[in-house]
Specification:
Layout lengths: L1 H13 L3 E5 L1 H5 L12 H4 L7 H6 L1 H20 L4 H11 L5 E4 L5 H5 L6 E3 L2 E8 L5 E3 H9 L14 E5 L8 H13 L2 E5 L11 H7 L3 E6 L11 E4 L2 H18 L3
Parallel strand pairs: 1-2, 1-7, 2-3, 7-8, 8-9
Antiparallel strand pairs: 4-5, 4-6
The protein binds zinc ion.
Zinc ion binds next to loops.
Length: about 260
Amino acid sequence: MQEQVEKIAEWIVTSKRVVVFVGAGLSTESGIPDFRSPGGVWDKYDPEDFYFQKFMASEASREKYWQMATEMYEPMKRAQPNSAHLVIAEMEKLGKLDCIITQNIDGLHLKAGNSPDKIIELHGTAMSVSCMRCWQRYDRDEIQEQIRKGIKVPYCDDCGGPLKPSTISFGQAMPERETEEAYHRSSTSDLFIVIGSSLVVHPAASMPLVAKRNGAKLVIINRDPTPCDDIADVVIHGQAGPTMTAILNQVKKGLRDCRF
Ligand SMILES: [Zn+2]
């Protein structure tokens, strides 16, 4: 693995636009359950009940949604960035990060110290709540406090519209601006690093292909094989935290020695 680590470090040092693409595997290393895994929240609740259209259609659906969302939020709020998040924050400090494209909704890159303008959240964020009528945003904790006090479905102070966590629900369109920006950054990157994503959820999974087609080197760091392993320049099957820490050490060494 040392050889691959050195290769990736060399590319980080010599590349101009490094895009990091992350998925659920990064969050699980911070103790956040992968909600799609066995034993996850979707074993207990039926995803069919949480389609966006149902949420908009009935008070009973909204109540059920908030019950599930509150349960999912608790472990997320407690979670702390792991060493891979910290390495990605360090890459920004070193001037070695164009942006992070994330499929996660846990806000951990912000907690780790990355700037908001470096983070593209493809599936939204659980850290805030949006009005589904006027798009006014609220802090998630404020709304959770209302729920704790017994309010079953929160509504907008301004317009009375229903509030929902600012995440992309089943049946809800992907955010246009973020998706476009993510494709744009993928196509202009010269090094595209996938961390902790199984690359099966579309359209996100096509971004490594876009990057590769436009000449970027493609690196995949994931516990299990992915459908893009065949076209990647380097693949490491392992945990994100220790792998990224080893890579950062080499990057720092490279920058210090001007070896590359
Ligand atoms: Zn509103």
